[in-house]
Each structure stands twice: as C-alpha cells, then as structure tokens.
Design a protein that fits this description.
Blueprint: E1 2-8, E2 11-16, H1 30-37, E3 48-53, E4 60-65, E5 71-72, H2 76-88, E6 96-101, E7 104-111, E8 116-123, H3 183-196, H4 213-219, E9 223-229, E10 232-240, E11 244-249, H5 257-268, E12 278-286, E13 289-296, E14 300-302, H6 306-318, E15 325-330, E16 333-339, E17 344-350, E18 352-358
Length: 365
C-alpha cells in the first residue's frame, strides 16, 4: 500500500493512487481515511488526495478527503501537491494540464521543476445561494440555534472506535516562512514584516463607492453582513470558489491562532452555513499584502490554504482594500494571488516532497 507525502507551506497531504489500492473501491472509507491521517496512530496528514481518476471533462480527476473522513470539493494546496505528484510519477508530459474536482475543473501550470506551481482556481462567487448561506441566520441579534461541535485539530482525525479528539491548542512560537518561495514573494514578506512593526503605514486610499457598506450589502446579503458567534458580533463576507468560505476582517492584533481556535469551529458549524464552511480571519496590511489565520472545514487549524488565500484575497479586493496582485501571508508561508476579470483566480505557491513509503495492513486492523 504505497503512499506519497508532500506538503505545501506546512499543509501536508498524502497522495494515494487508486491503482495501488484495488480493494478500496470506489474510495477509502471514513475509517481508513481517519487511520491514515492520524498523527499518532497513522502516517499523519491534513488529508488524502485520491487520484488520478478518469475524467470526461479534464485530463485527470481528483477526490480530496479531510482527516475526519469528509470530502472537500476543492483544495488549492491539494491541487498543487497533486500536480507535483503527477509530474514526479511521469504521468504528465507537459507543464500545463487540467484536473477535475467536485468543485470544478482547474488548470495547473508547473514551474521550477515542480517546486512552484500555479493553479487557475476558477471564479470566486459571492452569491449566497451558491455558497450556500442560510441568510435568515445573519444578524447581530440572531442566536446561534445549532450546537457548534469543535472540529478535530488539523490532521488529528480519530481511528475507528476512538472518542473525538480535543481541539488542539495554538502554538506559542511563530512558524518559519517557506524556503521555496520565489524572490518577489520574499520581498513582499519583508515589506509585510516592516508594516507589522509600524515602519510602513497603510497607504491612503479613496474607497470605491461600490465598496460602501450599503452597496456591499445590496450586492449580496451574505457579504459585509452581521453574524453573532459565541459572545461577539462579527461582520462576515461569504464566498465560494467551488468550496464555501467565510472571511472575517479584523484588526491586526486579533488575527491570531487563539482567535482561530476560539471562534473557528463555531463559524464552521454555524447554521448559517448548511454545508459548513472554511473560515479565514483577515487583516489587510496594504494594497498588495494581506494576512490570514485559517480554520478549515473538516480539519481544523491550518498553517496554509490555497483556496482560503483565494477567497480572502477576492473578498479584500471586493471591499476595495487591495489591488489585483496580492501576497497572502499565513503561519506556514506565503502564496501569491492574481485576481482577473470577474474574480477569476490564479494562485501560485511552493510544493515540497516529503516521503514515499508503504503502509502496513496492520494499520487497518
């Protein structure tokens, strides 16, 4: 049972080729996924990439599973990792190819021998019905009527028969930036550090009238909308890029791992999001840089996310706070986002190969 492990800015996935698992049809079970992803009792990962699969729409198809066994429609980091896997296995002969996911078809472009990959993620939509958002739950005075169960910490899914794991506590020390980031991204990272220390003020900007609160609210009832979670009233901006996202703009001091751990699981399972949601706590640094902390649906606290970067950048642009070329800073490192016409997204980031190995059948007994 061969596995291939990669990470994208600390967001690690295990690629399993269905050809190597003829008895796992049509896909691994929830119990098998949890066993593989468990950090103590399995190989350990933030999810499983199940592919390549046949496709009638693209050159390859891919299914993506979270460590709790649920299935994700799309993953930006997962798509970059899967693209690198296809290159390493010599399953592609050109650097430009397409992949079908449940969240839509994407185009992948391999650069720097697979160490850097661009993915055309598709189009961000702010349509409440497409995300989806149950808008009747929006409002500062609307109580959260459904119990928000804390999701397992990222990559800490349970093997069969184990009780749910406790939510992980945030790390005290900062995470290093990726050594694989290109020079222009590293330069943006240095600007980010100067801005955070107060050396570089946020540039003045005259807001677009279309970005006024009233215009944004009429644009979509779940954009720039009030939502109460636990003891606090937030303003949220919901979006989808094939999977649902809830972006919460906050002051710099509040965009922390502690905030993500405290509020993330309750946003994820809030009844306003019928299919649950990925959560990003957003701070806009300047017109070219944003910083996010992430709570991922079905997985928990996450060091980096490609689809979260895409959604957060699109929201910041729709709010009139950033331009079209954006560097997204996360605990695991940085991703660059280009926003095209109609919010089509190009996402670029690094991939690192970790290991190839064999799982024992004993893991599943």
């Amino acid at each position: 049972m061969l596995f291939h492990k990669y990470h994208a800015l600390g967001n690690d996935y295990i690629v399993l080729n269905p050809a190597d698992f003829p008895y796992w049809t049509p896909a691994p079970t929830v119990a098998q996924i949890r066993a593989v992803c468990h950090r103590n009792f399995g190989v350990g990962s933030d999810g499983i990439l199940w592919g390549p699969l046949p496709s009638q729409k693209s050159q390859f198809a891919l299914r993506i599973f979270n460590p709790d066994g649920s299935e994700a429609e799309k993953s930006g980091n997962g798509l970059r990792i899967f693209s690198r896997f296809l290159l390493d296995q010599k399953l592609v002969t050109t650097p430009d190819f397409t992949i079908e996911t449940p969240g839509g078809n994407v185009r992948s472009i391999i650069k720097e021998d697979g160490r850097l990959i661009t993915v055309a993620m598709g189009r961000v939509s702010f349509d409440s019905d497409k995300i989806p958002v149950a808008i009747e739950y929006l409002g500062h005075n609307v109580a959260q009527t459904a119990k928000s169960a804390s999701a397992p910490a990222k990559g800490r899914a349970n093997p069969p028969g184990e009780p749910p794991l406790e939510t992980a506590q945030p790390e005290a020390s900062p995470y290093p930036k990726s050594a694989s980031a290109p020079a222009n991204v590293e330069a943006a990272s240095r600007r980010f550090s100067e801005s955070e220390s107060g050396k570089m003020p946020l540039p003045l900007h005259t807001p677009d009238p279309a970005s006024s609160p009233s215009a944004l609210q009429s644009f979509s009832p779940s954009f720039n909308a009030p939502l109460r979670v636990l003891d606090r009233d937030f303003t949220i901006c919901a979006a989808t890029i094939g999977n649902p996202h809830c972006v919460i703009p906050l002051p710099a001091a509040e965009v922390t791992p502690e905030t993500a751990h405290r509020y993330g699981p309750h946003f994820e399972t809030h009844p306003a999001f019928p299919r649950k949601t990925n959560v990003q706590f957003l701070h806009v640094i300047d017109r070219a840089n944003i910083r996010i902390e992430i709570w991922e649906r079905g997985a928990g606290y996450t060091l980096a996310s490609g689809s979260s970067s895409s959604a957060a950048a699109a929201v910041a642009h729709r709010l009139g706070l950033v331009d079209r070329d954006i560097t997204v800073h996360m605990p695991g490192g940085i991703i660059t986002i280009e926003i095209g016409d109609n919010y089509d997204i190009l996402m670029t980031g690094p991939v690192t190969k970790v290991a190839t190995g064999k799982m024992s059948a004993e893991l599943f007994t």
